[in-house]
Amino acid sequence: MLKSQLLSLELGPELRAHIEPPIFDALFSHVAKHPPAKNKRGVPSLTVSRAKQILEIVLPCYRERVAASLDGINRSNFVSFKEAGLLTHQWIHESVKFFRREGAPILREALVKDNEEQRVDYLWSILFSRRLLPLIQGSGLLRDPQKFECSDLAVECIKLWLGDIAKKLGSVDADHFSPSAFFLDTESYMEGEIEWKGQRLHLRGKPDAVMLNGETGRPEVWEYKFGLQGQIELQIAQVLFYLHLLNAVKGPAFETGRLEIFRVTPDLEKESSGTQSEFAEKIEAAFAGYIGNYAAVRRLKIECTLALKQSNPPTMPINLMFSGPGGLGKTELARRVAKALGLPLVDVPATTVRDVDSLLERINQTLQKNGQEPIEVGTESGLKKLEYPPLVIFLDEVHELRRNADAFLNMFEPKEKRAVGKKVVGDFKNATLLAATTTPGLLPSPFLSRFRIIDLVPYTAEEVAAIIKPVFQKSGKTVEESFLVGLAKRGRLNPRVAIQRAEEMLSHHLFDEKQYPLNEMGLERISTESWRVDTHGLRQLDHTYLKALQSGPRGLSALVSLLPVEREEITQMIEPYLLQLEAISLTTKGRELTERGRLILEK
């Protein structure tokens, strides 16, 4: 079961005095050493987002410092839905605009409601019918089953947000209420010059919301984040930057900032109290312990549940394709689907498939190992017809079929599932068909249209850290979370690579505990001596790629001529991770170095 929560952190003067100095000292020191472009007045100029990126690189201990000052931030059991977070942000912005432009009578009516619950119900009914429903209808969310849960989560978050608004309205004087004063203007891009210890910096940006605190009569800067979307501590820094910016633009009235964190977590209380899970025990057991891509796992649990309920033998009526970079556990998800359905898994690399007959041959070989074989049930179009037993077929790296994919259209047509070879026709009506790809764009549209795509997102450092932690636990070693996160980064946030790194780190430690302690010092030593990677897991080749972009954007062909590797290694090995790090961006001018990429090179 899922539970939505709203965690509110108030950044008042006392807390600001404690955490601001290291933030602004680091930022202004970096600007002095590496001046960015200047405005017309000759003052260094940055966007708030870029200032936050700089902080993440130049002040690596910042997270620990701020976390020590903030009690009650619990990162365990967070569920990260990037799409739901983006949708929540969009809807909050649209809601604020709605209330500012059209909501004066609505908010005044809400003020006279008897209690907070009535205010929330009233505000939600109006906001949903007049503003959010048209947005949902226009966005196509209702036509895409894969986005239902994303929109459901965003709706729950908006309701939580309205609950917070209702509380604030409860402290407002109804006789002197003004919606435009309660929701201050944040639709315009703001810019101004802030000062710190005699240095000046031109900042530009647009906060999520600025609201009036009815109790203090002073405005507050509000920022919103969703789950694991960015680091909490860095988001706090963003709030502080906006406080200084707004004081520069609108006058010194802004003393307090607020960070609203929308969290969706498994409802552990209900589960531990014996309340029945929304999924059967068999389904939960099949996916137990899988870390990351919670949205994809939940979708698979739903599909497996429906298959078990609606068909015997259990068969998914739709085909599913996992899409995303390598190392995200696509094969493991296929194994867990097979386990949930209680069926054998036939794992077929598409690189071994030349045509329909070679695919049937691979399937037959796997069935024979399991003591199974298809049953002859007559003929079709003069060919022997074979009916295959219930099974799960997983076609990995399916993009390798490329143009030959059209030969498999009948097999992956959900209503047919017939593989027509040269001598036999395979009937797979009792089979569940899965596929995986890193590059769906290489497949023809008719083939893709036969699948429901499940997009997998890259792991966070914290998720990879959780995956590699058992490597040390099995040896009775206790290690710090920061060590595991550092190891995850040096493994390029790829679980497979990170596990290999963890095992190698442990081997070196068992060989010489003093030379290779299980801490940052030991990690730095092995990274330099053996792995030849920096703290981000970047190799010399990655740095060479980044340096090639220092003079400006370059196209892929230019990069191929500059680097000692083939085009495929650039597009499949180097660029995906650099994009994940936000060290580069893909623009109409070509590959471009970002601020984060520049800072990585400067370190």
UniProtKB/TrEMBL annotation:
Q: Give GO BP annotations, semicolon-separated.
A: DNA recombination; DNA repair
Alphabetically list the UniProt keywords: Cytoplasm, DNA damage, DNA recombination, DNA repair, DNA-binding, Hydrolase
Q: Name one GO molecular function term.
A: ATP hydrolysis activity
Q: Name one Pfam family in it.
A: AAA
User: Transmembrane segments in this chain: where?
Assistant: none
What the entry lists under SMART domains is as follows:
AAA
- Which domain of life, per UniProt? Bacteria
Q: What range(s) does the AAA+ ATPase domain occupy?
A: 316-460
Q: Does the keyword Hydrolase apply?
A: yes
User: InterPro entries recorded for this chain?
Assistant: AAA+_ATPase, ATPase_AAA_core, ClpA/B, DNA_helicase_Holl-junc_RuvB, P-loop_NTPase, PDDEXK-like_dom_sf, RuvB_wg_C, WH-like_DNA-bd_sf
- Name of the protein this chain belongs to: AAA family ATPase
According to the entry, what is the taxonomic lineage of the organism? Bacteria, Pseudomonadati, Pseudomonadota, Gammaproteobacteria, Chromatiales
